[in-house]
């Protein structure tokens, strides 16, 4: 973006947040111009407000000057939600990083948007409480970004996703008003549910300046059981068996044969060759109950054709079982410099069909694919791997992605489970949503952001 | 409302839904003009569509003719959400009453809006599944109404409220477009979360024509423990003790001393005079686990000062314990012909303060008050009782309601936990929400319903 920011704007921003908190030089701008995808879009400048009032003043100014604003949390997204593809201002919430309150009796926490997910998890666990949402990026992601993207993670089968833990929000609107949605209680039906609307709105409708989050009592214990399967169908067929046993695991993670080969080749886990699928099932709760449930899981896995079944007895064994899953990201790097990681989702019984179709697609386009993810909630990460410098391979990989989206939709699912749309999936939005549905969303966007200054270029393929 | 509906409109409606499904005569209109409050507002006519296409055609016509439309489910609300206070059309969903699918493996149901909550509960329980939301009106309420009002109930402490079970919706917009929000999976971050926005929107933003609902495995067992307390503070102080024991009851119901006196006087339950509060604590889950948890609950209640503690051992004893709670509605009728039932909510640790303040308010206005509700989630039903023909008493009772709302807000809560705003609480909306927050909601309303034809006169004190 070639826009030159008027001197006046810089002066006024310095008045609002202080000179030290406005970044204008190229070198220091770069870290604010990319996310986990690594594609760089330089902002014209970066502001680092400390208070809600500062955020409101920035938005009023930006709206007056028609300056694009992109809010930024941890900057670890996979679809570019925090990246300023139209230049303008990046508003980083990194200085708004206080945990204001942890209320044990009433089971909530009040936090600023720049608190890291992991930091909140540790702080509440120290009090015997539990904040369940755990996106893979939890060590670096900010709560504000988690809410804006409605982040998921492995525990959603039992605990739901981020939006299920947001009780209240303070939001600065695109026109610079400060509004409050929800409150401190699970029950609250006063006016439209703006919390519901803002969760997952990818920073297009407002900037989150405070969040009130629902907490749970911390489960006493966790336990993991691992099993290998000769087919993906067998592995997935055991999931409804848990329902029959009235059992809801905290997580059911799955890895396909390519994932297993990858970690085996890279780290010699010694997983037998006949393993075409691997399941990791975690249960949590009261100590005795977890013991009982882990045995039940073990039995169900065996009866469903699982072999080499291992039930962790100690924290050390627990870590070992998850090692395979954690090694995966590194292990697949050897298959290509470019990873197209797509978080499709289907009703969980359709996972085997999805994976079969993805394999066919990969074969047709001669692209290596690795599938793994959350078998409990139907969310599979389909990773097409190729050489990023090989333009022909990249083109083929992108075609494979489009066909994967089509397959997920045909199977009753959709194109994004937890990464959002951002700019990378905006061209595919029409595959998933009808024209009147998109138009309804845009009407809401225009109603709240008449000048379309907040996070332009995201979600929709045009900003009108 | 004196509006005379043009002949042409009636003719066109008859073409859309068939003559048999348009009601124009006064006598048959009356049942569609009131809800649980019993205040009558006659509609000009009632239409009973069977399909989404019919609903869309009706809305297109209504939008063209600027005809007010009020969607109606079971008609059992407490704030008038389904009542046509500006006349026009009532669109009853009673013929859209099919359960289209119950998917065991993928844990969801697809239903039309006119399915009764109880009917759905029974249908899924027969399959070993569980739909947790259970508003008090569940035998008559419709799923569509539950979603529109984001209905609660006693189980919200463990299971959340209706919105936590809505995966997907088909909606007809005020301008007659058919849109789809969400889908069949818990994880879905494709575009704005219109499901989140529609839940609790009280029929102002669209008409729900289909819902995809999340189900859980049916818990094997339930168990209730009852205890009496000498003070409300003692009773409420045991709630955080459950958190310390990492225990989440399915329900914690509370009755204050006036509630206890009322049922005792009416039905001779023999509850001792020193009981100033009664708690009913229900746990559910696996059979062994429930047994263990019920004992833990019993111990915590005793240690917290509870007396006359009873733990149900059989289904019969279970029923007996809940008898007291169920008798309440009938028992309090003798205290007045008019019941102003207000569902305020506070962070649960503030319940004792709320009840103390409500008692002071009642004393000051010389109005009898009965408080009971959901101690687990802070939602107390404050019932001011008076003679409906005594205008002076009614005036005093209404003042008491306003002060109760102020007290709930001061204590960090809000004016409606599960009944919604409708027309009865619209005059109080500004007590709970700031002007910019209300204006943001209205912008959304205008964006989706430019002619403000859908459920006019509700939520906001003016329709602009």
TrEMBL record, chains A, B:
Superkingdom, natural source: Bacteria
Pfam families: FAD-oxidase_C, FAD_binding_4
Domain FAD-binding PCMH-type: 39-218
Documented EC number(s): 1.1.3.15
Name of the protein: FAD/FMN-dependent dehydrogenase
Required co-factors: FAD
Enzyme class: oxidoreductase
UniProt cross-references to PANTHER family, sorted A to Z: GLYCOLATE OXIDASE SUBUNIT GLCD
InterPro entries the record matches: FAD-bd_oxidored_4_C, FAD-bd_PCMH, FAD-bd_PCMH-like_sf, FAD-bd_PCMH_sub1, FAD-bd_PCMH_sub2, FAD-linked_Oxase-like_C, FAD-linked_OxidoTrans_Type4, Oxid_FAD_bind_N
Keyword Magnesium: no
């Amino acid at each position: 973006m070639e826009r030159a920011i008027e001197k006046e704007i810089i002066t006024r921003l310095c008045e609002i947040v202080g000179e030290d908190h406005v970044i204008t030089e190229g070198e220091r701008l770069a870290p604010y111009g990319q996310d986990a995808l690594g594609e760089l879009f330089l902002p014209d400048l970066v502001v680092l407000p400390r208070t809600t009032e500062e955020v409101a003043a920035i938005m009023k100014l930006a709206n007056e000057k028609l300056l694009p604003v992109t809010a930024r949390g941890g900057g670890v997204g996979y679809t570019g939600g925090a990246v300023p593809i139209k230049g303008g201002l990046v508003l980083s919430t990194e200085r708004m990083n206080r945990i204001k309150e942890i209320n044990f009796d009433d089971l909530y926490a009040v936090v600023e948007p720049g608190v890291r997910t992991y930091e909140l998890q540790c702080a509440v666990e120290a009090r015997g409480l539990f904040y369940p949402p755990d996106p893979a990026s939890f060590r670096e992601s900010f709560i504000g970004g988690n809410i804006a993207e409605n982040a998921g993670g492995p525990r959603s089968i039992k605990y739901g996703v981020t939006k299920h833990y947001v009780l209240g929000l303070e939001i600065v609107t695109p026109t610079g008003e400060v509004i409050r949605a929800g409150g401190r209680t699970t029950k609250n039906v006063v006016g439209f549910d703006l919390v519901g609307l803002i969760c997952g709105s990818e920073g297009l409708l407002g900037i989150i300046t405070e969040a009130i989050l629902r907490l749970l009592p911390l489960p006493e214990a966790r336990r993991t059981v691992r099993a290998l399967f000769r087919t993906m169908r067998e592995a997935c067929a055991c999931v409804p068996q848990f329902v029959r046993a009235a059992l809801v695991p905290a997580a059911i993670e799955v890895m396909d044969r390519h994932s297993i080969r990858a970690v085996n080749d890279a780290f010699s886990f010694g997983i037998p060759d006949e393993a075409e699928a691997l399941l990791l099932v975690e249960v949590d709760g009261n100590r005795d109950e977890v013991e009982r449930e882990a045995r039940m899981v073990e039995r169900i896995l065996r009866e469903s054709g699982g072999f080499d079944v291992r039930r962790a007895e100690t924290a050390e064994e627990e870590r070992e079982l998850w090692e395979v899953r954690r090694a995966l990201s590194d292990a697949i790097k050897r298959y290509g410099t470019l990873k197209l990681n797509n978080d499709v989702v289907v009703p969980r019984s359709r996972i085997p069909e999805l994976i079969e179709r993805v394999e066919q697609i990969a074969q047709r386009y001669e692209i290596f694919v690795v599938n793994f993810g959350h078998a409990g909630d139907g969310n599979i990460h389909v990773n097409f791997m190729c050489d990023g410098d090989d333009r022909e391979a990249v083109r083929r990989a992108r075609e494979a992605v489009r066909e994967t989206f089509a397959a997920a939709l045909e199977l009753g699912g959709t194109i994004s489970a937890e990464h959002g749309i951002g700019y990378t999936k905006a061209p595919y939005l029409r595959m998933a949503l009808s024209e009147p549905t998109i138009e309804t969303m845009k009407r809401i966007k225009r109603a709240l952001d008449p000048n379309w200054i907040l996070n332009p270029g995201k979600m929709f393929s045009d900003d009108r």
